[in-house]
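pinging the channel bc i need a second pair of eyes. not urgent but kinda urgent?? the chain im working w is below, pasted from the shared doc
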Amino acid sequence: MKLYDAVVAGGGVIGASIAFELASEGLSVAVFDAQTPGREASWASAGMISPAPENSTMASLLPISLSSVRLYAAFLKRVEAISGKTIGYRKDGALDLFLDGTGQSEIDGLLALHHGAGLRAEALSGPEAREIEPALTGDIRAAVHRPDEASLDNRLLTEAVLEAALRKGAEIFPSNGARALWTEGTTCRGLHLQNDRVEAKWTVIAAGCFSARIEGVASYAPVVPAKGQMMALRCDTVNLKKDLWCGHIYLVPRHDGRIIAGSTVEYEGFDRSVTAAGMKKLLTGALSLVPALETARIEETWAGLRPDSPDHLPILGPTELNGLLIATGHFRSGILLTPVTARLIREWVTTQKVSEDWAPFSPLRFQQARQSRGV
């Protein structure tokens, strides 16, 4: 049995990026995935890099979100150079759209949320928004322009990070996921796999919504799957420049001409089925924003399973078991938080110190909450 410096359970973009960072430090690293690495939430994302909190209850996420945005350019440059792959990064900004009937207080609240976070945001009239995006419906009353927003092709990113990790010396094992933690006393010694076990000084759980299925992990990472249905459209008469948001519907243009429409949030267990109701919601939302998309071709439909935690915040950091680290629960922010998550895990493994305050995301917070309730 080979001894590694670190083993990672989960080969999505988070696990692969952690492996890439650790292998870049010269550590021996192995990644174990239950299927083909990168084919779960990382494959299903829209790829938006948006640091703004969705609402005031997510404010604690802002510092590491901003740090991750600052890290992205250098992170992508390294990944592309080492992997030899391009990622389809776009930094063209975004528009939050408000249809007729929206009150001014809602627009003012969004502006206040962004300005309070130190983010650039500018109010636009409906005609001003249509000057930027001529395909928008005439029913747009107003918009908020966020010029610093970006997006990328998450599938290309995941493939590139996996390749970069391999080229840095990480070993990646598909179809051999973690079954349980291997613990002795107060130490995690590695992972029990499907038919074997692997030993390491450091064990990182980054298996997305499947993390809680690994025996011994659920108390640290009580994540559940949050299904998101999506579709890819292509329309020769529509050339969007910006990511478009309106309520829970968004449209994200890709570098290859596709437009990604998303997304639902459904708690249906591990079901990945694409439903008529889900597709109706996406199409209705897309056409209400850009009517010309009625002639678009539907190139692909899919559903992914995001890892959601009880408080909708990521789960990052060490546990009371020596050598065990958790990196999951990123919910709708997995792509956004990829660089900072990988950096924080690398910093802890190599120095036992981190450059960001990750205490709000500690895996121990759920145990502490249960104890305070007397459970």
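so The CA atoms of residues 52 and 117 lie 7 Å apart. and The chain has nine helices and 18 strands. — does that match what u expected or am i reading it wrong
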